Amino acid sequence: MSTETLKFQAETKRLLDLVINSIYTNKEIFLRELISNASDAIDKLHFESLTNKDILDGVDEYEIFILPDKETKTITISDNGIGMTRGEVISNIGTIAQSGTKAFLEKVREGEGKIDEELIGQFGVGFYSAFIVADKVELITRKAGETAAVKWTSDGAGEYTIEDCEKDSRGTMVVLHLKDEFVGGEDFDFTNAAVIENLVKKYSDFIRYPIKMNFFVKYNDGKETVEIRTVNSMQPLWTRNKSEITAEEYDEFFKHQFHEWEKPLEIFHTKAEGTTEYTALLCIPKHAALNLFYADYEAGLQLYSRHVFIMNKCKDFLPDYLRFIKGLVDSPDLPLNISRELLQQSREVKKIGKALERNILKQLSKLLKNERERYEEFWQEYGKALKIGVYNNAYDEKVKDDLKDLLMFETSTQEKISTLAEYVERMPETQTKIYCASGKDKVTISQMPQMELLRERGIEVLYLLDPVDEFAVEALQKYADKEFQAVTREDFELDDEEFKKTKTEVEELAKSNEDLLKDVKEVLGGAVSEVRLTSHLKSGAVCLATGVNGPSLNMEKTFAAMNNPFFKAQRILEVNPNHALFKKLSGLHALGKDTDEFKNFCQLLYTQALLIEGIMPDNPVEVANKIAELMAK
Ligand code: ADP
Predict the structure, then answer these.
(1) 269-274: long-range pairs with CB below 8 Å, 24+
(2) CA–CA separation, 422 vs 410, rounded Å?
(3) Which residue, by CA, sits nearest to atom 17 of ligand 1?
(4) Mean pLDDT for all residues in the chain
(5) Residue-by-residue DSSP string for 323-367
(6) Measured in angstroms, how far is the CA atom of residue 110 from the centroid of ligand 1?
């Protein structure tokens, strides 16, 4: 095929402009990106060779070669990995995965055009970092097992060319034509072998393939010769002593190994000796993966045995609620040829997993105790996972016990999120329950008619803002022997005498209005299970309560969203006897329970209660007509 000139896909182009024009504190990151790509390419080849030896064509010594060159003002990074076909170059280098790019550009927009390194890497635009230091980039590549090679060239300005070329061995070579400021200067001379050597040591020391460079050696007799040396130690980081590993080394390792860009929020490096021997190097990434809670998210840890890689994404170590943890486990007690099925049954894996889980939870509670701000950062990203953990382990007291003190909630009286322990500590002695209310946000909840009384009494209410919160709280049932009491459940009560007194009064009143309540219920047909008077409302006329058994109204909505329309909340219409509407209702009832006026009044009362809950009435047009009729009167 001849030379083709192609345009970058529009979004790729925008991204490229952003990358090139943004100012970096770290001009040197291109090197670790390209080394990382090279190492990935060798990984891919190696995996393929496990089932197809021929693909190596006899060359099974993997290497990455870096060649800085002052004369041509270039730096070249080559690998003998898997390489790319023409089609792969076009789709991998000329395009960026649609979804990733979109998400990226949205983030950039959110930040009003502000773009930083963290952002770039989150969406895997590593290769493009080459354009930070180069005004022209050539990529020459030959796919393993094939003879054809292609050359991709671009100045990053919207177009690239792609043409056939010669390459005598498999793999990829990336040639960066450096901008003048990166040649020969004092700060960033990327044609200087010593500078590059330091960068490789700093960022890529642990890369498990040799990174080689040419070095000029002068002998005593004045002769000069070129020596090829491996620059990186290739020692797996986790095998080194904890005390000898710098924070930066850990960070770089995670970035490379798990395609993270930002440094992790928390790192766990444990070595265990004894009956089961293992080393684990785990981290909590700074940000949750966008698909963390979707089916396509693949959780799991990498598995090594005696430093030899066995498997990616082994799911059997950690429970599902810790799906956000990334890392690896290296254990000599696991055989090299273990299958996924055997792993699941392996006692060693279970034992290691349990120990890791315990360790992670312990570190989390330490973080909560000692570094509140960082814990809250963690909570914003992963709190949902822990709450799902509580819900999924509703019948496992041990797990619930481990998790309950790590949970945090918004509340009605606090600016910041609180633990359950903190809520309980603030409770007045007379309060015996933990009051909670669910809704989509703080404002919506605070406007609920049921909240008025609690606000007046100065009682703090736990806000359940995430749909999973209510499920988690139901699974817990109690905290510190205090039951959770939803403000919208039919059994809602306050502990004080005043409430008890009004309650008795209202009960008396209900007795004398038995017929009325029965008739309202009859008008509403099957829509409600009960109509009753309440001592719960202040200025509101009506509200909906739900039965003590079964889901709440919000849970009903969640079930419906999950295609489970059969879990229905038991609806109870509560009427405030101190409201003018109640008097009106009684008056209409006295005129006859079969009159249209009475029936319409009942329907509209119920509709109001529905609207307060954010539920659309079944027959909105009819309701609107009735309101219109009333207004015109
Ligand atoms: P990422 O590495 O995060 O996927 P990049 O922009 O760095 O993003 O690379 C895009 C894709 O191009 C890679 O996923 C890979 O398929 C391909 N690629 C990049 N460099 C190489 C290389 N040296 N050898 C083979 N393929 C490569």
Answers:
(1) 269/238, 269/242, 269/245, 270/355, 270/356, 270/359, 271/242, 272/352, 272/355
(2) 11
(3) 92
(4) 89
(5) TT-EEEEE-TTS-TT--HHHHHH-HHHHHHHHHHHHHHHHHHHHH
(6) 27
Examine the pLDDT at 116 and tell me if it is beyond 70: no
**382-391, 594-603, 624-633, range with the lowest pLDDT:** 624-633
- Going by C-beta distance under 8 Å and a sequence separation of 6 or more, which residues neighbour residue 347? none
Q: How far apart are CA 241 and CA 250, in angstroms?
A: 12
Q: Whose CA is closest to atom 18 on ligand 1? A: 37
Ligand 1 pocket member 124 (CB < 6 A): yes
Domain locations along the chain: 4-230, 237-372, 407-486, 497-632
Superfamily designation of domain 4-230: Histidine kinase-like ATPase, C-terminal domain (3.30.565.10)
Query: Taking the model in full, what pTM does it have?
Result: 0.75
Is any ligand 1 atom within 6 A of the Cβ of residue 172?
A: yes
Task: Find the distance separating the first CA and the last CA of the chain, reported in whole Å.
Answer: 82
540 pLDDT more than 80 = yes
Q: Are 544 and 613 in contact (CB under 8 A)?
A: yes
From the options 3.10.580.10, 3.30.230.80, 3.10.20.30, 2.40.10.10, give the CATH code of 237-372.
Answer: 3.30.230.80
| d(CA 327, ligand 1 centre) in Å | 22
From the CB of 126, is ligand 1 less than 6 Å away?
yes
Q: What tokens were used for 275?
A: 């009956």
pLDDT tens for residues 181-211?
999 887 789 999 999 999 998 888 888 899 9
Q: How many CB atoms lie within 10 A of CB 614?
A: 12
Task: Out of 3.40.50.720, 3.40.50.11260, 3.40.30.10, 3.30.420.40, select the CATH number for domain 407-486.
Answer: 3.40.50.11260
Superfamily of domain 497-632: Heat shock protein 90, C-terminal domain (1.20.120.790)
**Ligand 1 pocket member 41 (CB < 6 A):** yes
Distance 58 CA to ligand 1 centre (A): 24
Buried-state track 317-354, b at ≥16 Cβ within 10 A, e below 16? bbbebbbbbbbbbbbebbeeebeeeebeebebbebbbe
Residue 87 CA to ligand 1 centre (angstroms):
13
Q: How far apart are the C-alpha atoms of 249 and 160, rounded to whole Å?
A: 36
Ligand 1 pocket member 125 (CB < 6 A): yes
> For a pocket test of ligand 1, which of 15, 19, 37 has the largest count of ligand atoms closer than 8 A to its C-beta?
37
Q: Is the CB of 138 under 6 A from ligand 1?
A: no
Q: Ligand 1, closest atom to CA 38? A: 23
Backbone φ and ψ of 597, nearest 5°: -60, -50
83 Cα–ligand 1 center, Å: 10
